[in-house]
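Batch manifest line 296
LIGAND: nicotinamide-adenine-dinucleotide
JOB: complex structure
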Amino acid sequence: MSTIAFIGLGNMGGGMAANLAKAGHIVRAFDLSDDAIKRAVGAGCIAAKSTLDALDGAEVVITMLPAGQHVRSIYLGDDGIIANATDGTLLIDSSTIDIDSARVVIEAAQAKGLAMVDAPVSGGVAAAAAGTLTFMVGGTKSAFAKAQDYLEQMGKNIFHAGAAGNGQAAKVCNNMLLGITMIGTCEAFALAEKLGLDAQTFYDISSTASGQSWSMTTYCPAPGPVPSAPSNRDYAAGFTAAMMLKDMRLAQQAAAAAKAATPLGAQAEALYALMESAGKDDLDFSGIMKLIDGSL
Ligand code: NAD
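JOB STATUS: finished
ARTIFACT:
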């Protein structure tokens, strides 16, 4: 068993840290929120007073933070994790962030001889609590091999996506596709209704035909056909439209830097930004159905 510093105990990190404690690790937990630390202590973690205090005795550091600027500020600089971690410490960042930040931080870690991976996740808060996340990991083969055992205690599917930053690349490409298929699925259900085809009948046909996708069969944006989908609870999140917009923006940023044409990704970003400007981005991302059918 290892001593693990876990920084960022929010909706996702709270469940992930709890699973590591349950697996028998000593988890030294820190968050800017005292309430988040209290919840982690209730789940078997040890309260740390700061990020640097959490590092005390840690062989592994895991971070689960909102965005790239948080990750840069916590890892880089004289007071950062990289400057203060002892030799041999393994660093894992599971936040969803821009690819540039991921690569800059991992290069800085490597320059100090520390193994580090970017390991963003797919699966929401329930998967974080249940330990069934999917991890997309970027970094060297040896860093991946070191991280794998720990990731397996928080997730079900662990993929090595290639060099540093490739975990983030896999994540933004996947979520861009998810945003696009969700909007397309909404358009199809809204059109079907206007053409006199009820949602269940259209679902029965399309879910076994070529229009089928995860957005349709697991997360159907039209109420009815998939009882567990947020559409049946007035689009209570789930995965919020705000989170989807964040990922769409990361995808567009990556596309611009790589000079990749992503016209549907750009359109999807613009539509999710309308959810934000309507003040409805706290709805589940499938709630974009309301924008498409005019009921927002
Ligand atoms: P969250 O806002 O609930 O948690 C982030 C936590 O980080 C907060 O508790 C905050 O206090 C803490 N924090 C911020 N700066 C800090 C600092 N300097 N030191 C210590 N703690 C700090 O967010 P979340 O939903 O847990 O998401 C975390 C990451 O996971 C994000 O990058 C998000 O995009 C990604 N993600 C989220 C989901 C989801 O469904 N919520 C799914 C997949 C990926």
